[in-house]
Every structure is written in C-alpha cells, then in structure tokens.
Amino acid sequence: MKKLVIVIFTTIFVSLFILNMFLLLTDDKVTRSIQMNEQIFAKKDDMRETLETKGIVKPGDEYSVRYKAEMGEISTVYVDEGDTVEAGSMLFAYDSSKIDRKIEKMNERQTKITGTIKELESEIIKLESEQKSSSGTLTEQEEAKRQNDAVLATSKINQKQDDIKDYELKITEMEQEISELEAEKEGLVIKSKIAGTVKEVNRVAEEDDDIVMLLQTEHPNLVEGKITEEEAVKLEEGQKALVTADVIPNKTYSGTIDRLTMIPLKPPSLEESQTIYPYIVQLTDETKKLHHGYHMNVQFVLKEREQAIIIPESAIMTDGEKEYVYIIKYGQLHKTNIVKGIQIRRDVEIVKGLKEGDRLVPNPTPFLKNKMDIFTTFDESKLSKKLNKFLKADEKAFLMLKGFTN
User: Fold this and answer.
1) Looking at the whole model, is its pTM more than 0.85?
2) Model confidence at 135, in pLDDT bands (50, 70, 90)?
3) Are 213 and 91 in contact (CB under 8 A)?
4) Is 80 exceeded by the pLDDT of residue 204?
C-alpha cells in the first residue's frame, strides 16, 4: 500500500512538471500568464558620448588677409590700423573698373533694345488700327485690296511680335549676365571673417600672398590643451566641443577643434607610457567674460543624437540576426522587432519599432512569449507620474477591469 501511494504521488508530480514545462515552452494558443511588477518606458532624450579633458584660454588669435594677384590691383582700403571691425565688415576692395565698364555697356544695350521694343509696339498698334478702319461701301476691287492689305498687315504684326519676343529674350540674357558681373564685383570686396582689431595695414601689397591686413580677435576665443595618443585617435579637426569654466558657473561655450597637431609636445620616449599632442578649440559663442589663463573643462563630442528614443540595453533580446523587445500593452506582452542606432554605455538608441512612452519588460527572459497575459498588483493612487503620463485612459480602464488594482 505504501509503495502504491509513493508511485501515485510520483506520477502526479512528474505529470505536473511535464505539463508546466509544456505550457511554458510551447508556442500554441494555451493561455498563460505571469506576474510582473517591474516595467520601464521608452524615453526621448539627447544622447551624447564625450571625451573629457582640460584646457587654458589663450589670447585672441591673429587672422591675416593676403593679396591675390589674379584678382588685380587694390583700389580701396576701408580701414586703418587700430580700427575695430565686426565679422562681415569691408576691409578693402580690388579694382572693379573693368567689370563696371562691362556693366555700363550692358545697360546701354538694354536701353537701346527697350527703345526698339517700344517702337515695334507702336507700329503694331498702328497696323491693328488700320485693319479696323473702314470708309463705307467699297467696290469689289477695293474690297479685294482691303483684304489683301489686312493679310499683309497681319503678317507684319506677327513678325513684329516675334521680333519683340527675341528682344525680350536678349534683355533677360543680359540681365543674367549683369547679375553675374555684379556678383563678380561683390567678390572683389574683401570682408572680415572675425570681429576684432586691425593690427597692420599694407596698402602697397603687390606680390602674390603678401599680407594686406593683420587682425586680432577682440576677445579670447581659443582654448588650448593637450591629449594622449589614445585620445587623439578619437578626434579630428572640426569636431564639436563643449567648454565650461569653474569661475563662470552655469555657462557652456560651444566650439570646434580648430587645430589638432600630431606633432608631440616633447620628444617621444619608450620610458613614457603615452605621447602627448596639442590641440586648439575655436569657440563660436561670445566670450567677453573669458580671460587669458582661465582653466577650462573641455568635452569633445564623440557621438550625439538629439531627441532619440532610448531604452536600456538590458531590455533587448536577440533571435538570430533580429533584435526585439516586449511591449506591455492591455495586459499582454507584445514581441516587437526593433532597429538599433548608436549605443552609449548602457543606453541604446532605437530608430525603428518604438515610440516615446512605450512600456517595456526591463529584463526579459526566454520563458516570455508573444501575447502572454501578465498580471501585477499596484495601487492606482500610487502610480508614478511617468506611468500616469504615458498610460492611456482606455488602457488604465482595461487594467482596472482585469483586476490590476486592489
């Protein structure tokens, strides 16, 4: 009897174990549910990976404007030494007399053609008036002559209208040519690329590449520093930088790497673990509060996405080459394929498959299945502000009807 009882209980236990494993592992339509009290949200935020280092504000940079022989002689200088200029201020101009003469001839031709068009228009009006004129009853011979004259007048009108179109086309072509000449003339006016002070003026520059003017930026707008060889391989000229100063709280300056010189600051040595290289960041923001020698915190932006959909890496599962997550919606799990973008530490950008506010399983396991029912226990009054923000009214009602609240 005792053996029989043991056999019965063993059989029941094994049967229940097999049944539970079958329900968990098969993909049939047997309804299964699982308790789940944790969830995360797909959020929208900026992603930024940076490389941090230190730098020093250096005096304003000098900017030279050089003579270009192919542009001709310098005719006008607009500034003197010591003058303050803004970005876009006129510095000097090359001689534009040849272009001016071309434009003048074009304008004269336009004036003549416009006069010719007016004469043709007057002749057309006269011919049309003669076509309409009538002198009472005409003989058969007079009527035939009148009709012949009308046909001849129509032919002349058509010819003159064609001539007008040709002249108008010529005017359009000349206007285009004049615009090109004006643009060429504008290019002969050299403007400052920076705001600063004129340090030197050479009014007699005549050799190609001679310095015509030397300007210095009005305020410090450069930050110089040094980086290791491991850091240098991650950077390149033109790369974005964010710069702050401890002495100026709550202010971030934007800039770019202006110079990254791959010449070591000192002779490399096998005894040194790293070789050091210099860099200069050009700040693009107004820098009146900065002064020579200020110590700066420099962040070089290596990767950046603005307002990306972000989830933690732990929420993503892999099936072969496909990646997916489980979205929690209306009390069920929904297996959803995704396409990843960049990853910064544990945060992953999702470029396809999710939208802001989607509720996800934070740490999915292989036992989870698509369309699996879930249940949890929470107090509606204790819902987080984020959940209240993203959970739709109809979904809240659905959850409450399923007994998700106490």
Assistant:
1) no
2) low
3) yes
4) yes
Question: Tell me, what's the pLDDT at 2?
Answer: 60
The 8-class DSSP code of residue 70 comes to G
From start to end of 78-131, where are the E strands? 84-85, 90-94
The letter for the amino acid at 386 is K
Token output for 72? 């001709």
Residue 45, SS3 per DSSP:
strand
Helix, strand, coil percentages in the chain from 3-state DSSP, rounded to 5: 35, 35, 30
Q: Is the dihedral of CA 286, 292, 295, 299 positive or negative?
A: positive
The whole-angstrom separation of Cα 232 and Cα 230 is 6
Q: Give the confidence band of 377 by pLDDT, cuts at 50, 70, 90.
A: low
Most confident of 133-137, 144-148, 186-190, 383-387: 186-190
User: What is the pLDDT, as a whole number, of residue 30?
Assistant: 42
Residue whose C-alpha is closest to residue 348's, from 337, 339, 357, 335: 339
Beta carbons within 8 Å of 324's beta carbon, 6+ residues apart: 316, 317, 318, 335, 336, 337, 338, 353
What is the biggest distance separating any 2 CA atoms in the chain, rounded to whole angstroms?
A: 145
16 to 19, 22, 33, 145: CA distances (angstroms): 5, 10, 17, 118
Q: Which of 129, 127, 184 is nearest to 156 (CA)?
A: 127
DSSP H or E stretch at residue 148:
helix 140-186
User: Are residues 27 and 368 in contact, defined by beta-carbon separation less than 8 angstroms?
Assistant: no
Residue type at position 220:
P
